[in-house]
Hints:
This is VOC domain-containing protein. The chain is α+β, with helices and mostly antiparallel strands. The chain has helices at 19-30, 75-84; strands at residues 68-71, 88-89, 94-96, 100-106, 112-118.
Amino acid sequence: xxxxRVLGVGGYFLRAQDPERLRAWYRDALGxxxxxxxxxxxxxxxxxxxxxxxxxxxxxxPDQRTMLNLRVADLDAMxxxxxxxxxxxxxxxxxxxxxxxxxxxxxxxxxxxELWQPA
Length: 119
């Protein structure tokens, strides 16, 4: 008997103190264009699903239980853009052979977001 499987990620939902401000930041700082219905025509590509130990600091503050990872074409250009907009960008980046480069930013509500330039 075949096993049903999901087809991909259908959405990512965030609680926010100011939902419109947060939505505008994701649109203006990261280019996530969404219509009135919230649909964003994201480019096809790899998606990583991973779990971490409860005590990890990789996801940001201990209160942050998930982290959004977004693929980018040019990590350095994206980080420079975010800095120019006054976003809180981590100073360092990380490179993993065969995987790509990573950088991090905090959205206006303090959520750590990972940016990934695939290898």
